[in-house]
Amino acid sequence: MTVTLADVAARAQVSPATVSRVLNGNYPVAAATRERVLRAVDDLDYVLNGPASSLAAATSDLVGILVNDIADPFFGIMASAVQSEITGPGGRAGGERMAVVCNTGGSPERELTYLTLLQRQRAAAVVVTGGAIEDAPHAAAIGGKLRRLGDAGSRVVLCGRPPTGAAPDAVALTFDNRGGGRRLTDHLLGLGHRRVGYIAGPTERTTTRHRLEGHQEALAAAGVADDPLLTLHGPYDRRSGYDATLELLRREPRLTAIVAANDTVALGACAALRDRGLSIPGDVSVAGFDDLPFSIDAVPALTTVRLPLHEAGARAGRIAMGREEEPPGGIATVHGELMVRGSTGAPRQH
Amino acid sequence: MTVTLADVAARAQVSPATVSRVLNGNYPVAAATRERVLRAVDDLDYVLNGPASSLAAATSDLVGILVNDIADPFFGIMASAVQSEITGPGGRAGGERMAVVCNTGGSPERELTYLTLLQRQRAAAVVVTGGAIEDAPHAAAIGGKLRRLGDAGSRVVLCGRPPTGAAPDAVALTFDNRGGGRRLTDHLLGLGHRRVGYIAGPTERTTTRHRLEGHQEALAAAGVADDPLLTLHGPYDRRSGYDATLELLRREPRLTAIVAANDTVALGACAALRDRGLSIPGDVSVAGFDDLPFSIDAVPALTTVRLPLHEAGARAGRIAMGREEEPPGGIATVHGELMVRGSTGAPRQH
DNA sequence: CGAGGCGTAGCAAGCGCTTTCTACTGGGGA
DNA sequence: TCCCCAGTAGAAAGCGCTTGCTACGCCTCG
Question: Which PROSITE patterns does the annotation name (chains A, B) (predicted)?
Answer without folding.
Answer: HTH_LACI_1 (PS00356), HTH_LACI_2 (PS50932)
